[in-house]
Every structure is written in structure tokens, then in C-alpha cells.
Amino acid sequence: MNNAIEVQKLRKEFKAYSSRSGLTGAFRDLFTRNYQIATAVNDISFTVKKGEMVGYIGENGAGKSTTIKMLTGILTPTSGQISVNGMNPHKEREKFVQTIGVVFGQRSQLWWDIAVQESFRLLKKVYKVSDQQYDDHMNHVIRTLDIEPLLDKPVRKLSLGQRMRCELAAALIHNPPLLFLDEPTIGLDVLVKLKIREFLKEINEKYNTTILLTTHDLTDIEALCERVIMLDEGNVIYDGALKNLKETLGEGKELQFQFLEKVDLAAVKHVTDGMPVKWELDERDLIFTANIEDSDELISRVITAVAAVFKIKDMKINETSTEEIIRNIYEKGAVDVG
After folding, report:
1. How far apart (Å, rounded) are the C-alpha atoms in residues 131 and 142?
2. Were 48 and a residue from 5, 34, 248, 321 both cysteine, which residue would form a disulfide, CB within 3.0 to 4.6 Å?
3. ABC transporter domain location, by residue (predicted)?
4. Are 177 and 210 in contact (CB under 8 A)?
């Protein structure tokens, strides 16, 4: 079997209860509750091949975490089929958990008050990993993630970046063929993120580990994943190569301006009236960005118009960022990339 994950018409509904007002309402709520059905995941289908690194992205409430929880067997689907590593996550629980690693950025699998290596030893027993297997694999993991100095410390004494590196190591004690990462770099500084990304690339190359990654940090996705699945309100609105997304929808350019004097956005917009330009202002760094089509003539006209009126301190021309492309997709809805 070539697929690590197969999902067909997967659906998850929740009952959202509402409370009646007043004392009489509260009393009636004791006996009958009003509720509505909320659909978190709406009949989605996709497959992930063994050894693939896939970015699973969407805004808050899009259904990402609910999907991950169904794929890892934490939640039972309302309907649809799931096969992960050739198993049903809910029905073959004990055998199934031996074949996956999970890191939830917001939740810990390490014991708070004991030293990190004691947590590792406990997990080694849980997963029935032999001393030989543990030494062969974990020495490399510990060295690459640079967590040797942390092994004697209790988890509660670790910084967030240190803890996340230890969480990642803990998820890999049994060297699972499939790794689920839910916001693994949330709140981490740039150097720790880079270390984690390099490590994930390495285990993917060394062990052909399949990785499904949800994140709000699109630089994680760009650094690791060739393919993205994009979710919006429980529906898949794009599934395909990140490269195609950028080529098809990233045909624009960003012109970034910083000015020597104080300038307001309305004045800048006024200068390019009648031109197909979308302006944005980063108020913290006072960077004015013009999003335009990739046309040499238009770029030249915008720069000339701006330079004729304002004193420019700095200017850059960038490809449209993945972030901008994805924001445009969410504004427009489903995307068809040929």
C-alpha cells in the first residue's frame, strides 16, 4: 500500500447547545436543551503518500485540528472512511498508536515534574522499544535537536522552545512511519524554528517519515512541504503543489516603499488613482506595499508616480508572498489551479 493516509467523505458534526434566558429558561434547560448541528469537517477526501510532507492549512475554525483528531483516533467521525497506516484509527487503537507520532503545540506528552529523560524512559516502555532500537535512533534525535543538556531538567523548568524540541523527540521514540504536527512552532523564536525544520527534513530523508503539518506559519510550509491541502469552513478549497499555487496565483509583484517624511495611506493611494494597484500599510514599520500585476510597464509607472510626489528612503520589489496568495484565496473561495 502506497498511501499513509486515505480519507473519503470524512465528516464531523458537533451539537452546539444554546441556553434559554432567565430562571424559567434555566429550569427548562434541565429537562430539554435547544441545540444546533455545527459541521466542523464537511465530507472531505484526500490521500497522503508514504514519505510525503504535506501542509494542512486554514484559518482558525477551518476544521484542521478536528481532522487531525479524527486521523489520530481522538475523535470519532460522524461519517466517512479513514485509513491511516492501513488501519482504522478508532477500531485498532492499540496497534495503531504504535505507528504514529503526534505533537500538539498546545499540549504536552511529557510529565511536568520529572526529568525529560524519565519521560523518555516511560514512553520507551509504553511503546515497547528495545534498548538497542532506542540507542540507535534516539542518540541521533537527541544530538540533532540539541537537547542533551536538557535531559536532567524537569519539563516545567524548560522554556517553550526547549520543551517543543523535547516534545518532538518524545513523539519519535518509537520511530513512527507517520508524524502529525499540529502548530509545532507556535510561539518559538526563529533559530528554534530553523532547527526544528532542518530536523524534520532530515528524518523525512533518512527514514521516509510521512509528515502532516498544520501551522499558521507559512514559512514552515514553504521550507518543508511541496504540497498543501487548504481548508475553509470544513471544506477543502485547494489540494495540490505549493509551486502551482504560487505560479498560477502569484503572478503579481509587491513594491515596498519607505518614505523619508510622514505620509498617509490615502495620499499614496491618490497618486496611483486609475492604476490597478492594491495598497497596504504596515503601520509598525511604516512600509507601504503596492500589490500589482507582474508588468514591467506598470511597475515603472507606479514607481515614477510615487517618486514624483514623495521622497523615497528605501524601495524593494518582491514576488507576491505565499501569505498574500492564501489571503486572496480565502477572500475568493475555492481555487482551480490547472
Report:
1. 15
2. 5
3. 25-258
4. yes
274-306 confidence digits (pLDDT tens): 899 989 898 888 899 998 887 889 999 999 999
Q: Given this model, what pLDDT does residue 18 score?
A: 74
Chain-wide mean pLDDT for the chain? 87
What is the reported pTM?
0.75
E strand intervals along 19-172: 34-49, 53-58, 79-84, 100-104
CA 171 to chain centre: 17
For residue 259, give the H/E element and its range: strand 252-259
Q: Do the strands 210-214 and 178-182 form a parallel or antiparallel pair, or are they unpaired?
A: parallel
- Plot region of 134 (φ>0 → left; ψ -120 to 50 → alpha; else → beta): alpha
First to last CA, the chain: 28
Distance of alpha carbon 171 from alpha carbon 82, whole angstroms: 22
CA 90, 95, 96, 97 torsion-angle sign: positive
Residues in the chain: 338
Query: Residue 228 — φ and ψ, nearest 5°?
Result: -125, 145
Q: Average pLDDT for residues 47-53, to the nearest whole number? A: 96
CA 12 to chain CA centroid, nearest Å: 20
Domains of the chain: 3-244 (3.40.50.300), 252-319 (3.30.70.260)
Q: What is the pLDDT of residues 97-149, one digit of tens each?
A: 999 999 987 678 899 899 999 999 999 999 999 999 999 889 989 998 999 99
Contacts of 109 (CB under 8 A, 6+ apart): 102, 103, 119, 123, 167, 170, 171
